[in-house]
Please model this.
Amino acid sequence: MMEMSKPMKQLVEDYTPDQAGIETVRATRIVMLCGIISAGKGALHSKLLESSLYHLITSNTTRLPRENNGIMERNGIEYYFTSQDDMRELIENHKMVEVNQFGENIYGTSVEEFKKVANQHKTALGDIDINGLINLRRIADDSITAIFIVPPDYATWRSRFVNRYGSSEAIEKEWAYRRDITIDELERALAIPYLHFLINDEIDRAAKAIDKLARHEKDEPSSGDERAREVALHLLEEIKAS
Model:
């Protein structure tokens, strides 16, 4: 009863999965793609999923579906769109691996998603923010390959962002909300030493590089971390100046 009275924010801040959930995650090979909005993570997911080795982890969110590139998001595809009450129940019953709150919305990944991967003997492939990644690594450090995806330059990234939202009104509204989040995400990512950085300049090449990292093979020099980190730093500087 005490936990039921907690506000959602406190439940999220205090959250830990149960031991069974932790063991499920630790037994799973995991590739998590991080990156700012419109870095191209979705396209890379699609390319990697052409291989039977990967299974896409779908996260839960309490926000409503929205339109991306003229297409409305679908439940169970982009996210499981979950009510506040259902999310509270999942959290209180420790059925989530990790949860985070952004504004009024809660995001997180369920233990059930990792069970699906374990049953199929595949590699879990997911999209996660920096907070979620830090939480996930606390319980399954050795299982995770984390890769921060960056566009090749500011102009390419801005073009992708504009195409994503279409109308000038939608772009301005989203950018007003996203700018500080994007800056924070880049700054925090650049401060994390264990995070691989990868330039998404060509889908086939980038997907092959991710697959090599997932298999713990040496990546090709042209997509090495040092160059990609430099691109991320330049992108951060240009976004701050915009």
